[in-house]
Amino acid sequence: MKNYKFSLQSVLEVRDNEEKNVLEDFVLAQNNLDKEGRKKEELQRDLELCLEKKSSIKNIQELMMENLYKIDLEDKIKFQDMVIKEKKIELEEVRKKLQMAQKDKKIIEKLKEKDLDEYKAEIEKKSQKEIDEFAVLRFKTS
């Protein structure tokens, strides 16, 4: 009896590679989103420090400089919010691609399982047939 070979094995391998590639893209997108989130947190900490420092400033020129710095930080935080929003959209798109790749791979895996079950059933059927023939031959000779 020959060994089992799935006729769509190459398709399964392609789907597996596609899933791995999209998973790498997903991890990269998640890391980018996390990085942008950390940037925003850093800007917010700088803004808090700026606001705390502002209350202790007595020189009008320093106060104006701190106010400009505060405005700059607020603008950077708003920009960072937009970047984070874009990164979330990108992440969601990659998540959908990953789900599709996993679904496509799962379909082929199910086909392989079904095919393997059919192969095993056929082997069992042939084996049973051989056993039956052997039993008939034995019965005839006795």
Automatic annotation (TrEMBL):
InterPro entries: Flag_assembly_chemotaxis_eff, Flagell_FliJ. One of its GO terms (biological process) is bacterial-type flagellum organization. Residues 26-53, 84-129 form a coiled coil. Keywords: Bacterial flagellum biogenesis, Bacterial flagellum protein export, Cell membrane, Cell projection, Chemotaxis, Cilium, Coiled coil, Flagellum, Membrane, Protein transport, Transport. It comes from the Bacteria. It is found in: Cell membrane. Its main location: membrane. GO terms for cellular component: bacterial-type flagellum; plasma membrane. It is a peripheral membrane protein. Belongs to the FliJ family. NCBIfam families: flagell_FliJ. This is Flagellar FliJ protein. The lineage of its organism: Bacteria, Bacillati, Bacillota, Tissierellia, Tissierellales.
